[in-house]
Amino acid sequence: xxxxxxxxxxxxxxxxxxxxxxxxxxxxxxxxxxxxxxxxxxxxxxxxxxxxxxxxxxxxxxxxxxxxxxxxxxxxxxxxxxxxxxxxxxxxxxxxxxxxx
Length: 101
Hints:
The protein has helices at 5-13, 20-34, 81-95, and strands spanning 41-44, 48-52, 57-66, 69-80. By secondary structure, it is α+β, with helices and mostly antiparallel strands. It has one domain. Strand 1 and strand 2 form a beta hairpin. Helix 2 (20-34) runs antiparallel to helix 3. The mean pLDDT is 89.
């Protein structure tokens, strides 16, 4: 069974608990994804990195801290930003976070 990067990202970065830290992470991720001023760039979460390629597309991949330094997973997921926002909003709502509209 192949690991689903998107599911892992949502479980790690959005779900877990209705805490101020999770609310802040959700707000920061959503701001990064929706900002028209950020056309390209990277957002570093707790375990996952979002690489914004354009206003419409991102790549999500996992980072690992090893004794030799940080390495990135060989699996990555290319996502449409609008679809990703729908998924994180749905997960945030289930967690009881304040969902940005």
